[in-house]
Amino acid sequence: MTWWSDLVASEPDFAARVRARFAVRKHGTMATLRRDGSPRISGTEFDFGDDGQLRLGSMAGARKALDLRRDPRVALHCPTEDTPEDDPASWGGDAKIAGRAHEEPAGEDGSHRFRVELTEVVLTRVGDPPDHLVIESWHPDRGLRRRERR
């Protein structure tokens, strides 16, 4: 199993840039799988804890938490940020994390908490000059790769 702390240890600069994208606003987006296999998109908050773990939570009995109990596969997307149309290079980028959610003990209020095991982390940004995209992806078995898309 690979955790956020493993990414930080192996690729600290990349991990810091991904974390910065998740910190631009309080709420991001999470995708889970419903019982019938169709996707469910939910807003959520992310916690990159001081203990090196990436966690997320939800209210007691929330559908997204029940989805994760049944099928732990999860995709996380950073909050989005608008940029001026005349300055695409000012866009800070887009970060996504895919993984598996591992439930932790419930809070006193019955809320759900999950620790996220990483299976993929992707950071996309505008290149310099701003005529292409730079896509960096990290996988536990392959490490960090970079490619450009024009």
TrEMBL record:
GO molecular function: coenzyme F420 binding; oxidoreductase activity, acting on the CH-CH group of donors
Keywords: Oxidoreductase
Biased composition range(s): Basic and acidic residues: 100-113, 129-143
InterPro entries per the UniProt record, alphabetical: F420H2_bilvrd_red/Heme_oxyg, Pyridox_Oxase_N, Split_barrel_FMN-bd
Any one Gene Ontology cellular component term annotated for this protein: cytosol
Domain Pyridoxamine 5'-phosphate oxidase N-terminal residues, every copy: 17-106
Ranges where the record places region Disordered: 77-113, 129-150
Superkingdom assignment: Bacteria
Stated name of the protein: Pyridoxamine 5'-phosphate oxidase
Provenance organism: Micromonospora chersina
